[in-house]
Amino acid sequence: MTTTTATYHQPVKVLVVLIFAVVVAAVAVGTALSHADLKHGSEAATVRQYLDNGNRIEVWWNPSNAHRIELCQVDKDLYGLRVLKNVDGKWEEITAFLKSKMSNLSQVEQYLTNSGATKIWVK
């Protein structure tokens, strides 16, 4: 009597497809979220919203790293910064955050000066 044994490989194929899908999803999420969103969460969105609505009060330039820094006032004693770099002639955000431990403009300006930046525009 002759018997044949069938080999079943379907679970391996499903596992490979599942792993591939997880990797693709992880890459998509990682590229969709910026450093600002990952590190500073809703603070980044708040700063972005204020600046995108024309609430920029100063612009700074840091020649040591060629970054442009935009400054906004979010509340009476709260300031936000957005750091940008020029990529192929277009300004792209590196990060955005609130300076919650600095309650007045002169403290934020001193922070920027200490980083090597120079004020280039005031509203």
Note the beta-strand portion.
25-35%
Number of E strands: 5
Q: What is the overall shape? A: elongated
Strand order of the largest sheet: 4-3-2-1-5
Structural class: alpha+beta
Classify the helix fraction into a percent range. Answer: 40-55%
Radius of gyration: 24 Å
H/E order of the elements? HHHEEEEHE
First-to-last CA distance: 93 Å
Number of helices: 4
Low-confidence stretches: 23-32
Largest β sheet strand count, sense and barrel closure: 5 strands, antiparallel
Return the average pLDDT rounded to an integer.
Answer: 83
Number of domains: 1
Outline the structure in words.
With 123 residues, this protein is an alpha+beta fold. The protein has one domain. It is 41% helix and 33% strand. The protein is built from four helices and five strands. Strand 1 and strand 2 (67-75) form a beta hairpin. It is elongated, with a radius of gyration of 24 Å. The N and C termini lie far apart (93 Å). The model is unreliable at 23-32 (pLDDT under 50).
